[in-house]
Amino acid sequence: MRFFFAIILCAGLVLCGACGGGPGGGDDEEEMMEEGGEADLSITTISFPNFVTGDDVDIVFDLRGGCGGPYTATLLTGALPDGLTLDDAVIQNGDGTSTFRHHMKGILCAAGTFDFTVRITDTGCSVPKPATRQWQWTIAEGPIRIVKASPPMIRVDDYVDQNKWPFIGVLPPTQINTNAMIQLIPTGGTPPYTIAHIDDAQDPDDAPAMPLNTGLGGQNGDAILGAATEFGPNGRPWLLSFLVTDSTGATAICKVQWPITP
Questions:
Q1: Could you report the per-residue pLDDT of 155-184, keeping only the tens digit for each?
Q2: Which regions of 17-169 does DSSP assign to beta strands (E)?
């Protein structure tokens, strides 16, 4: 009996030891806490969704611990997928509170496999707490789209204009009567491409023609050239449609909006 009781007692101790790191008990939790009760920061995002070129993404890095921000986000090694940037902005809300972003956002402009390491630091702690994580992310080739330009396009969510068109990428705003040269850069399909402006009959908001005194030109016919002499209809950006054809003959109608400003 004594031998049997000893076995049960030892087994009970082993089981309790295995549970000690779980929720509520927590040796691991205690190890995460430093003096002052501030937990170490960790990045718990393991992988990213499957996206393709042309997708507009805004990814939140999942965090554990820390003090709730604000944060700084830094690329330590490698390169983010083409078109993406780290966003650690502080946004002032209408109710007097603040939102501390720890995001990766942009429009995916190139296919491929990308290896990169990001460090996020919680600067809201008494001593800033950093966390680092490395990923490998494969972006597949998507359908033909115009999501990139030179100078760069603007994500519609980042463009402040109450008259903007939703869900349509924004070309660099251009002052009226000012010469512009904006190269359109398609993604997807098989380059090289040809580009032509069209009037999309299926879209009643589509501009039937480009602004006066502008057109497509340049060495490859893929650049908007000229000095626009008129604002967009009803004070809105010009909504322009382009027919893009790749080297295999595949086509797509790609829309952009072009703000002409005073």
A1: 999 999 999 999 999 999 999 999 999 999
A2: 39-43, 56-60, 63-66, 71-78, 84-87, 90-92, 98-100, 103-107, 112-122, 129-139, 145-150
